[in-house]
Design a protein that fits this description.
six-stranded mixed β-sheet, globular, homodimer, 28 strands, alpha+beta
């Protein structure tokens, strides 16, 4: 099947005179998770990883992806005619370099300009003739899905869309621009206080938003909209003075802007739209990203509520897990994930999971980005560690939590790893730091206990989390990359160190932490974290000597807080069980 | 006096038609510490701080300097006709911006192009006509000191100058250049294995080094050289195939290079020389900086020897201090600094101090960059903390050590600060980290114990240290600035957290630490630090509860190691005293 698709692409290339075609795994909004319509890489070669780009020439077809997906790519590419090009390895040859090495200088490289970031194409435009062909694969992909149009609804997150638009207008004034085009889907949803479910796990509306001094235009309509929820939303939005227009009309609008300066988001503006703009442009990261990351009091209250209800669901799940694994003996990783999903689905305001649940024991848990099989998933044994990384979208917030719990007897190494990761988690949670500190400057607090034991983990310690938006959002993070964005009060980030031993086991402990003020003195203005996530940490496999007295106190206080806060929301049997689970350790 | 100098400068400006003059505190090699000849800022306005630049227009004269020097500048500028412009403050207006705000677009700005970094001038060259006038102040500064020419001698640091030149030739080949001009004085001294004392505290030779495929030219001779040491050195250098030429001939040489590509060090090449180059240039940081920072086995052995002898001197000094302060009651900060200098001067191979000793008690110690007065320095009381930051240059290495010791009874706050700083010092000294880690990623290890108590310090935690070279050298450091240079085995850095309470007291504990390998495992290649400095930490004012068992163990082990290593080099009375001082605490 994939070989036929590849050949039909090459037939098109020959007829058009193209020497190479680039297909990316992204969408016109540079989304982390694209809708089905834009899973072009998967359609062409069968690869389903989250990161992958394709180059096809008349005698070569390659998929570029990173270390996380090498094994998966090798399996999925078999018989497709595509070969794997490895990235994030020392000897990597990235696409621009590969093209330079393998194509003549006057070659024609065709791209679906809608799905290419404008600045990425600049990297190759100097060497080749770039042919931008929007929706290039439409001719070959007969049943290609349409752009989704799911019901769009409004939320009230504590600041009106009018206020946000005023702020954007102040921003463009300050930058001496006449307008700003928002192309990042989460920024548009944030600005307009709207949500939908156009993209799996992400409550987003595929659209563009153009804010100018005298008008606001929302390019959102895809075909004839009849659903009541969306129609009501559009009325509300229109009543705020916002024009509601067809999605595809943006192109015309941009072509008609012959004067002034337009601010474009350099992170998400696509190549095709960029080429349509006829006025001056300023291309820089959008200011919405940072402002959206700083949650207002309503959003913080919503996140607290989400974590209360989500935490109660997690405790019900862990209670079920502990009582079922031993008793039944046939619970699979998939059964557990499904049970957790069912429990969460009962929560009023639940809008779906915020990402695909990782439910894993043993060697599955040793893969940080494990995908729990839909069928024939491993059955949970009555020993060793079980890892569950999951989260949900609620009308009032987003959650992301990882708990690693013993299913029975654990090995000394499992216990040590469990404790050291918890120690790192606690040390970061207890951090205090002067205003102006960036995540990369405190990341080591979570790693140092592991490093002292010569252990480490290969992913970031913390990512930003949206308010009923993406479970990954910037600009702040807590990782080793030298990102200078200061952590500021109102930002929510995860705290999730881990240890992974290939073929053996994996440990990760994850809470969401809110940056809050912590007083001022002669030495400056101080900040610290407040933990939002509510779910106990199992104390039965802790190696006591590895924790110091402050860490023990934090752990006992946290578990007690979890019990006190959640028990009113739990049935008696779960509450009794949680009382036992949260008894302080000495 | 300064007002007259300013007026004579303005007379010159009027006669030449200049609208503004910029005078920097640097020299033609962008040295951190310039020779007397280049203390032009001091000559013109009286300001003696290490960082300060001047702009003079016909109706304004300003000195730009940073937070460290505000108080000093206000005092020293009084009656000079100059006003202070503050830098490193939120509302700062730096020189390029100030010029843009205060001068017309077609103004003529005169600079001494020799003392201006080439890239700095680019920042203003777009807005104004720049007149580069080498040695501009010569006409006004009648008794201006000449370029120093102190005896130049050779050293044997474990790698021949021939080997270093071969490596430089490989580098220029790799960069498709035909030559490299070294303009940084420590890089030239490192490459040629030569030292002198042209600059106070810095064993450097003011010169330039041009390395090409077929020749090496050292522009170093200033006038007629007659001293035997230098003549012998020049013979040795010539015998290695290096041409020895007058310092001022470089300009002609550069003007004669009409072909090829020359690599210039973007950090230190001055504007005047840059304008003289007639061939193509590549302007980037010199590769010598990084290679020089990684000490070879001979250099490491030399540094160990330097710290052994320097440590014994420090213990003799601290013994003298403790026995004298109480007994005599009239020891001043200056007396103590002088005594330490005398003790060090007895060490064979001592070549002078590596920077001006900070000897301070009370509110003096509360200033991180305190200068101990030459006359009427405060007398040391028999209570409270005394801080001494000092170091020396030896034929075989460079030292830099800070000890804070009680002179008698200390307040609870002094003891707490003393202990927390020591805790931070120890936590960084105990660090283990994967290869590839940069200093900014572990800086917080020294700060976290302070941050937990909502205390902090406003300087870097660690700077690189040269081998019988500058006591400050890059490219690595351990501080909050996002410098991505990885710490690698062989690099030497300081570990010097502190706490400063204005008008009260200051604490700093500083050792030099060597980055060494620490084994490999499934999680990567590990590095750690070995402490080079040998001098006990006083345990009498430690608040025991603030240190955990690992920190106590480190401290007891370190003090025991200091005693065992140094006692053979100490007289019986000092050794007995040190035995007492280094008894383990529980």
């Amino acid at each position: 099947m994939y070989k036929e698709r590849l050949e039909s692409l090459r037939t098109m290339m020959r007829s058009k005179g193209w020497d190479a075609v680039i297909i990316t795994g992204s969408d016109p909004h540079n989304s982390e998770y694209p809708a089905e319509r834009w899973k072009q890489v998967q359609w062409l070669c069968g690869f389903t990883g989250e990161a992958g780009d394709i180059v096809v020439t008349l005698d070569h077809a390659g998929l570029w992806t990173d270390t996380r997906y090498f094994i998966q790519a090798n399996i999925q590419l078999e018989g497709s005619g595509f070969v794997l090009h490895k990235t994030r390895v020392p000897e990597q040859v990235l696409i621009p370099e590969w093209l330079a090495l393998n194509l003549d200088k006057d070659s024609i490289v065709a791209v679906d300009g809608l799905c290419q970031n404008a600045s990425e194409i600049s990297a190759i435009a100097g060497n080749f003739t770039v042919a931008s062909v929007p929706n290039m694969l439409d001719a070959l992909w007969k049943d290609r899905p349409a752009i989704p149009q799911t019901p769009v609804f409004t939320i009230d997150p504590g600041e009106t869309r009018a206020s946000k638009i005023d702020w954007l207008r102040d921003f463009i004034d300050g930058r001496e621009c006449d307008g700003i085009l928002l192309s990042s889907l989460d920024e548009i949803a944030w600005t307009l206080n709207v949500r939908a479910s156009d993209i799996e796990y992400n409550p987003l509306v595929i659209s563009y938003l153009l804010v100018r001094r005298d008008d606001v235009k929302w390019f959102v309509l895809k075909g004839n909209v009849t659903d009541e929820v969306t129609l009501a939303t559009m009325d509300i939005v229109r009543s705020a003075g916002i024009e509601v227009l067809p999605y595809e009309d943006l192109e015309l609008e941009l072509g008609d802007m012959h004067w002034g300066r337009l601010f474009l988001d350099s992170n998400t503006i696509n190549y095709h739209l960029w080429t349509q703009v006829s006025c001056d442009v300023v291309m820089e990261p959008s200011p919405v990203r940072l402002r959206k990351a700083v949650k207002n009091p309503t959003e913080i209250a919503g996140m607290r509520k989400a974590h209360l209800l989500d935490g109660a669901a997690m405790e019900r799940f862990l209670f079920w897990l502990e009582s079922s694994v031993d008793a039944r003996g046939d619970i699979s990783e998939r059964d557990a994930a499904d049970m957790l999903g069912r429990i969460r689905a009962e929560i009023p305001g639940y809008r779906g999971d915020s990402f695909e649940t990782i439910s894993a024991c043993g060697k599955g848990a040793a893969l940080p980005h494990y995908i729990t099989p839909k069928k024939n998933a491993p059955v949970l044994p009555s020993h060793g560690l079980y890892l569950c990384d999951s989260g949900a979208q609620y009308d009032f917030g987003t959650t992301d939590i990882t708990r690693t719990v013993p299913l029975g007897e654990c090995s000394p190494l499992e216990k040590e790893d469990y404790t050291l990761v918890l120690k790192g988690h606690i040390d970061l949670a207890m951090a205090a730091f002067p205003a102006g500190t960036a995540g990369c400057q405190i990341d080591v607090l979570a790693r140092n206990p592991l490093w002292q034991a010569r252990r480490n983990f290969g992913h970031g310690t913390g990512h930003g989390v949206g308010y009923f938006l993406g479970v990954h959002e910037g600009p702040q993070d807590i990782r080793q990359n030298l990102n200078g964005t200061p952590l500021t009060p109102g930002m929510i980030t995860s705290d999730e160190p881990g240890i992974y031993r290939e073929g053996m086991h994996g440990v990760r402990h994850e809470n969401l932490i809110l940056c809050v003020e912590s007083g001022n003195n002669d030495f400056g203005n101080w900040l610290e974290f407040e933990t939002l996530t509510l779910c106990h940490f199992d104390t039965s496999c802790i190696v006591r000597e590895l924790l110091d007295s402050r860490e023990i106190k934090w752990l006992n206080d946290y578990n007690e807080h979890v019990f006190t806060t959640l028990s009113p929301y739990l049935s008696a049997d779960v509450a009794d069980w949680l009382r036992e689970k949260t008894m302080p350790i000495q």
